[in-house]
Amino acid sequence: MIDFTFYSPTEFVFGKDTEEKSGQLAKRYGASKALVIYGGGSAVKSGLLDRVVKALEEQGIHTSTMGGVRPNPTDGKVYEGIEKVKNEGLDFIVAVGGGSVIDTAKAIACGVKYAGDFWDFFIGKAKVDEALPVGVVLTIPAAGSEGSGNAVITKESTQQKLGIKQPMTLRPKFAVMNPAITMTLPAWHTASGICDMMIHILERYFTNTENTEVGDRMCEGVLMAIINEGRKVMANPEDYDARANIMWSGMVAHNGTCGVGCIEDWSSHQLEHEVSAMYDVTHGAGLAVITPAYMTFMAKHHPKRIAQFAERVMGVAKDYGSEEEKALEGIRLFKDFLHNDLKLPVTFKQLGIENPDIPEMVRRLHVNKGNKFGFFYPITPEVSEAIYQLGM
């Protein structure tokens, strides 16, 4: 286990009708003029946006709204939000939505305080030293951005999908989490979110850091809970308790708790970012293709952790063949859960990409991440090509 600093100051307000408290929370954290940012029409149609705006205005907080954030959020909305905040003198951002909306809010929050182009943060040219405070009313449990200091944005002109990790400055001040809001989510979004949160855990679990027993057991326990509760949610979308467990799992998966004391990997996410940047697929669905392919490669080249996952999470017998055989059986069971229980694609063809341009994905990936990346196993162009091929 390595030395670490863990800082997670977000206030979580969890339960039914908690969106009505968003005004009190925003006021507590200093809001007087708030940008309320949201995605498509669901927040409007459901009345959630109106309830949040009402709660803010009842506390004397002036509101200005901005919608239209789409999945795989792009830099255009970030620039629009930065200009709006500056022109209107806003001092707080409330994100009503899922990861795309929250990540856009974070990018706006740091861009407003920076004299240059916010994209400098994403290409490593500048560090986020300060940002506007952000609050969240969560609608889609998936990305875990409500509890993290991370954000991912796509630059449209270059199709670069890059992320930043700034826990000291970009963690939300508060996150309102009402599981009842998620009951009307389409099955596809629910399933994709479940996959996304599982891979967030696996990115921490696939580590070479030794003596991480607490972290390992936390990862394994949450993964098993997600599988159990995920099946319940898919069978009965109105199961409040299952929705509640899934919503909290999404936060736990990505606020850093499961990765404390270890060197995290994130290779699967980097590999998938090129898929969703080029083909605009749902991130969680892309991960359902890429991560099993990544794990299959590792079963042959670096199997220990994959075999441990197979045994402890997927229930493969301890004496089941060699490490590689055990790992492959665990991957088979994992893919069965993704495809048969969650109804997600596990191949490029099922994802709707009949003939993916693998050489171009490999080229873009290594332009963005360098000739070699990855902390669990070195991902070179030859390795990334092999993993993409396994996704076929």
Task: Describe the overall structure.
The protein is an alpha/beta fold and 392 residues long. 50% of the residues lie in helices and 11% in strands. The chain has 16 helices and 8 strands. It has a 6-stranded parallel β-sheet with strand order 1-8-5-4-2-3, with helices on both faces. A two-stranded antiparallel sheet has the order 6-7.
Q: What key phrases describe this protein's structure?
A:
392 residues, alpha/beta, two-stranded antiparallel sheet, 16 helices, 8 strands, globular
Helix-strand pattern: EHEHHEHEHHEEEEHHHHHHHHHH
Order of strands across the main sheet: 1-8-5-4-2-3
Beta-strand content bin: 5-15%
Content-based structural category: alpha/beta
How many strands, which pairing sense, and closed or not: the largest β-sheet? 6 strands, parallel
CA-CA gap between termini = 37 Å
Number of helices: 16
The radius of gyration computed from the alpha-carbon positions, rounded to a whole number of angstroms, is 20 Å
User: What proportion of the residues is helical, as a percent range?
Assistant: 40-55%
Q: Could you give a quick summary of the protein structure above?
A:
50% of the residues lie in helices and 11% in strands. The protein has 392 residues and is an alpha/beta fold.
Topology:
Layout: E1 11-14, H1 22-28, E2 33-38, H2 42-45, H3 48-58, E3 62-66, H4 75-88, E4 92-97, H5 99-112, H6 119-122, E5 134-138, E6 150-155, E7 160-165, E8 174-177, H7 187-205, H8 213-235, H9 240-254, H10 267-279, H11 283-301, H12 304-312, H13 323-341, H14 348-351, H15 358-369, H16 381-390
Parallel strand pairs: 1-8, 2-3, 2-4, 4-5, 5-8
Antiparallel strand pairs: 6-7
